[in-house]
Sequence to fold (188 residues):
Amino acid sequence: MGLGSLRVEPLIFRLVCKNGLICKDLAQKKYHVGRQVNVSDDNAYELYSDETLAQDDKTFFMKIQDVVRCAVDEARFALTVDKMRESTQIPLKHDPVKSVELLADKFQLTENERGDILRQLFMGADNSRYGLINAVTAASKIAKSYERATDLERIGGEILSLPVPQNLLPPPTLVAYQSLPEYESISA
Fold:
């Protein structure tokens, strides 16, 4: 990431297919001011006292602990698993070829990556959002570099975090807000 930053990204690793998926909704990135402040392009000098820097370091590492704790939270993991289950019930909006083309345009995939994802989608024989996620994360295993593989795992997570299409949402249930005084203005 560079000096002074840290990224914590939960990775779901399914043993069935050995694909990794980076959970976009749970990813966190933290920056650390560091020991110097850039006053101008040519001149940087130490501005903070040792005590301030020590407290800054302590705060930064406490935040890291919180971010990691959040990343491995069992309830959040269960929510991700539920989203994965839900994605099995969301059919692709277009045929597989068109779906991969749209994905490739949105995420600037190379021709080889397009072909790899389409091949994985056909081999998986699953034309749901879940099938597309699996195709993308499976393609990450044959990516040209570790960085690109990680990018594809992030793309899989972005697909998972997409909202459920309106036509697939259950019909809204009526709630009797009228009987609650604080909702009088809403129902009037």
